[in-house]
Structures are given as C-alpha cells and as structure tokens.
Amino acid sequence: MADTPSSLPRRLVPEGSTARGRDAQHGAALVAVKKLFAAESTSFFVVAGTAVFLVVFGLVMVLSSSSVEQYVATHDFFGAFLRQGIFAAVGVPLMLVLSRVPTWAWQKYAWHLLAASMVLQLLVFTPLGVTVNGNRNWIHIGSFSAQPSEFLKLTLCIWIGMILVKKENRLDDWRQVAVPLVPVVLIAVALVMRGGDLGTTLILLLLVGVGVFLSGVRLKFFVVPLLLMAVAIPLLTINGGSSRSTRISAWLAGCDTAEAYQSTCWQTTHGLWAMASGGVFGVGLGNSKAKWSWLPEADNDFIYAIIGEELGLIGACVVLGLFIVLAVSFIKIVRRSDTAFVRIVTGAIMTWIIGQALVNIAVVLGLLPVLGVPLPLISAGGSSLIFVLAALGVVLSFLHHAPDAEASEIATRERVGSLR
C-alpha cells in the first residue's frame, strides 16, 4: 500500500510544523483584517475631516444663498440645496470607497481613465453639449447634466504621475519628457479651451506644471513652455470670445464707467459690496441682501461673497484657513512620501483644489477678472463637488496604503522567525 501522510513515520514530519503552519495562516489572516480596519494616520483624518466639514458648510451656504432665487423660479426654497445634498451624498461615500483603492491600480488604469475623460469632453461639441454663460463645457442628457472637464482634471493628475514615473530615469532628456506628455496635455487643454473655459484651462496648466516640477525635471526645461504660455494665453484670452475679452478689458480698466457697471462689472461690483457690507462679524446667516437677485451666481462662483456678507471677515477667514489646512496636509504627504507617483499626483491635486480656491477668492475680491471658477467643496454644482471629493479619495488612498510595505515586511519577518 502506498504511503499516505498518515502512514509516514512520525519522525519524518518536523515536530510542531503543523501547528506553526496553522499559526502562520492565522497570522496572515490577522494581518489582512488589521489592514482593513487599521487606525488611519493623523493626516488621513485631517484631510477627510476638513473635506466633510467644508461640504456640510457648503450645503448651509448653498441653502442660504440660493433660497430667494429658487423660490422666485420654482416656489421652492430648497431646490438647489436638495440637489447639492444629493451630490454630497454621492461624493462623500465615493471619497471613502476610493480611499481603499491600492496605489498600483491608479497607475495601471491611468490611460483608461484619461481616455474616458477625453471622450466625455468631446461630447460637449456634439448635440449633447450645451453652453452655459458663454462656455460650451457641459453635456446634457435628459434631466442629467455634467461638466466633463472636472473629470479631466482628476484623470490628468493621475496620468502625468504615471507617465513621469515611467520616465523617472530619463528626465534629463527633454525629448523623453516631452513625449507623450506635451501632445496629450495640449489635446486636453485644446478641448477645454475650444469650449471657451479659460478658468479650467489655467487650472489644467497649473496642475501639469506643478506635477512636472515635483517629478524632478530640470528647471531649464520650463523656460520655453513658460515663454510660449506668456504669449499664447493673452492672445487666446483677447481673441477667444467677445464676452470674455469684454470682461477682462473692463476689469483692466478698473470698472470705473457707468456702462461697465451696468454690464460686465455688475457681478464683480456687487460681490465687493456684499463682502464690504459684512464687516467683521457679518449681517447674520440668511440675512444677505446681495442674494435678492443683486448678485448673479450667488450660490456658485460668488458664494464666497455671500459668506463674507453673512458671516463677516471671521467667516471668510475660517474658510480660507480650512483650505490652508488642506494645503499643509498635502505638502506633508508630498514631503514624507518615498514614492514619486504619490508625490506627483498629490502635488497636482493640491494645485487643482487649492489653486482653484485661491482663484475663486481672488475673483470675488476683484484681484482677477471673472473666470467662472467655483469654490471647491462649497459652491453649488455636482460635477465639481463629486470629482473634487474623488480627488481627495485618491490622496486618502495614498495615506491608507502608505504603511503597506512596512506591514508586509514585519509580517514576513514574523513568519520567517516562526519557521526557524
């Protein structure tokens, strides 16, 4: 009869090996469970907590700033608030789900995500596309509308990280840096610019520039692109559309004519008046006068003006301070990470979110012309809210999986030690 494991002499089986094998399997399962429910780092909770607080605060301010015009249009004070609440109910869980995605998955599917976002951006030039405030940057299907350029921002952040990591050892050669980075970025920027969205175009260029800088590319490689941008952007701005060029010309002139006040400077002027009337402590939540059809886009691009009016200088500074908290957290992640992909993507996402917030605030304060850029996490708008939360989910996934290598090494040592 052939020998079976049970018929083998007991002395041929290392004493205690079965128990150690069971212990090793139990240890591996325990490590997997601990990784699933492990306590997150402080930075994880700071980023997630700040984002959720800004979303909740944004819901309150959307309700306050939109209630009057919503009632005039639909006899329902809560229309915009309920829509924004639905977007938040989708975006916050999405952020938490994406925080569990491993880092390697973002790199593996970067091309797929970028291709999908570009296809969606192309749809704005089909019959599905619609024009909003002079920008053809929306698609409308039935009762559903979306802004594909928000998805494009996120996928471009991930894609440039993947490409630059693949070329990590060849960044001294400008040709290796340029291909395929320059053609792809130019296509993405051209698709957005063709729709007339100057604000999103500037944000895309900023996040790409910071991502390339963090990859370790030599500074001399930035000279030619910066010179080209210095020439191209003013030309495209002036000649890209009558509405945009008129707004910028009026802003450069100081909005000091009665004609400008009645047309192109109406929004900027009333935004400044709203901020000024708030004083230090504000007029009180819900007591804004500018939202009574005096300030266009009060719940969107100019919601910061309503914050300043109702909550005063203190409320405006608190919002600014929360974005600074996010910026500091992003910088810590960039500085502490040993992975180039994490540094590049986090830096690009930081530039997108914090840069867009600063641009929005600068527009409200009259430091920049009106660019149609919403305040991240606060302004009304589903596309912006959902994809900004998705971007934060990507950053949280880096934080969640940061100790993987260390945990794997410790588990390996324990298994090796138990078998000795």
Automatic annotation (TrEMBL):
EC number(s) on file: 2.4.99.28
Subcellular location: Cell membrane
Pfam families in the cross-refs: FTSW_RODA_SPOVE
Pathways per UniProt: Cell wall biogenesis; peptidoglycan biosynthesis
Coiled coil, from the record: none
Region of interest (Disordered), residue spans: 1-20
Spans traversing the lipid bilayer: 44-65, 77-98, 110-130, 150-165, 177-193, 199-217, 222-242, 302-328, 340-371, 377-399
Family named by the database record: Belongs to the SEDS family. FtsW subfamily.
The protein's name: Probable peptidoglycan glycosyltransferase FtsW
